[in-house]
Amino acid sequence: MAVDSALHEAANATRTAPLIDHLRELRRRALICAIAVVAGGVAGFSFSDQLIELLRGPLGSTKLYFTGVGDAFGIRMQLSLIAGISLAMPILLWQVWAFVSPGLTNAERRSARPWLPLALALFALGAVIAWSVLPFAVGFLLSFGSDDLLPMIAADRYFGFVSGLVFLFAVAAEYPILLVFLSRVGVITSAKLRAWRKGAIVGAVIISAIATPGTDLVSPLVLAITLLLLYELSILLVRAGGR
Question: Is 97 helix (H, G, I), strand (E, B) or coil?
Answer without folding.
Answer: helix
